[in-house]
Design goal:
The chain has helices at residues 12-23, 55-58, 85-106, 141-160, 179-189, 208-220, 239-250, 261-270, 274-281, 289-295, 303-317; strands at residues 3-7, 27-32, 43-46, 67-70, 111-115, 163-168, 171-173, 193-194, 205-207, 227-230, 255-256. The radius of gyration is 20 Å and the shape is globular. A 7-stranded parallel sheet has the order 3-2-1-4-5-6-10, with helices on both faces. Strands 7-9 form a two-stranded parallel sheet. Strands 8-11 form a two-stranded parallel ribbon. The chain has a domain at 3-172 and 207-233 and 285-301: NAD(P)-binding Rossmann-like Domain (Rossmann fold, 3-Layer(aba) Sandwich). The chain is of the alpha/beta class. Helices cover 42% and strands 14% of the residues. This is NAD-dependent epimerase/dehydratase family protein. It comes from Paraburkholderia pallida. Residues 4-223 form the NAD-dependent epimerase/dehydratase domain.
Length: 318
């Protein structure tokens, strides 16, 4: 049994990670901003600073984790209202992560698993699935902040001896998902016609329980030390294929109109939604061969099983 601290433990991914670790016999501590929000499977420690200022001074004496899984972050939003978005992202995603790493190392932690994002590498795959060896080219402030956090943590790890593991997930989905994935299910549930029948762009996804399992392996396996990994489900569906599969599991067959991609992009440009339309019509796939070959990891759930579980949750709650 290992002692593992999970930051952002009350979030969509954090709750799943805590459950997975606890189920597998680990001593889990949940770091949250508000007490009573992590789901009850781990002992909580609440610390209200969004940028983790003062975390070293507030750190409980009895908390000596072997590893920290760092999920807490300022997340990507479609319409950011911050005056300086990059500065806001850096404050939490770079400086905050470094504060956690330093405090954990001072308390004896040997490893930190940093949950980054595919956006630290690229917004599109340009015809070849993204691999860890490819030079990163982030496209927005969020992605850049995640890449800068990776670089800062690599440097701190080299200086301090703290083992750093970077995980770059693509789109994460599952029960309790929000944002664009939830909007997509809402549209299917309402039987709205969607002009995406001709979109054959493929996207890597990862079911939240698969991601949680991968993070547990990254926290525990000695072979993961000082490595970067992509994770994904067993298939990269097309946008149209994903909608059809979700509609089948929801009992709401997708109503897809075969609008040419060129027209969709032109409409996006005219309505100020060019970036959103680009994400819908261009592929973003990742190559997960490194984690499979290095750690022998394979997601315990297939894409279809993950979509089915997500649809069951949606039907019950909506």
């Amino acid at each position: 049994m290992s002692s593992i601290l999970v930051t952002g433990a009350n979030g969509f991914v954090g709750r799943s990670v805590c459950r997975t670790l606890a189920t597998n016999g680990h001593d889990v501590r949940a770091l949250v901003r508000r007490a009573g929000t992590s789901g009850g499977v781990a002992r909580e420690w609440s610390h209200g600073g969004v940028d983790f200022a003062g975390i070293a001074e507030a750190w409980p004496r009895e908390l000596v984790p072997d590893c920290v899984v760092h999920l807490a972050a300022r997340v990507h939003v479609m319409h950011d209202t911050a005056t300086d978005p990059l500065a806001a992202f850096r404050a939490t995603n770079v400086e905050g992560a470094l504060r956690v790493a330093r405090a954990a190392r001072e308390r004896g932690a040997r490893r930190m698993v940093f949950v980054s994002s595919v956006k630290a590498a690229a917004e599109f795959d340009r015809g070849v699935p993204l691999a860890e060896s490819m030079p990163p080219t982030p496209d927005d402030a969020y992605g850049l902040s995640k890449l800068q956090a990776e670089e800062a943590l690599w440097q701190y790890g080299e200086q301090s001896g703290l083992e750093i593991v970077i995980v770059r997930p693509p789109l994460v989905y599952g029960p309790e998902v929000g944002a664009n994935f939830l909007q997509m299910m809402n549209a299917l549930w309402r039987r709205l016609p969607l002009p995406l029948g001709a979109v054959d762009a493929r996207r890597s996804l990862v079911y939240v329980e698969n991601l949680a399992d991968a993070l547990m392996h990254c926290a525990m396996d000695p072979r993961a030390a000082n490595a970067c990994f992509y994770v994904r489900d067993d298939q990269d569906p097309s946008v149209a294929g994903l909608l059809r599969a979700l509609g089948r599991h929801l009992g709401r067959p997708a109503r897809l109109l075969p609008v040419p991609v060129a027209l969709l992009r032109a409409a996006g440009a005219l309505t100020g939604r060019a970036a959103q339309m680009d994400r819908l019509t261009q592929s973003l796939r990742v190559d997960d061969s490194r984690i499979r070959e290095t750690l022998g990891w394979k997601g315990p759930y297939t894409l279809d099983e993950g979509l089915a579980a997500t649809a069951r949750w949606y039907r019950v709650t909506h």
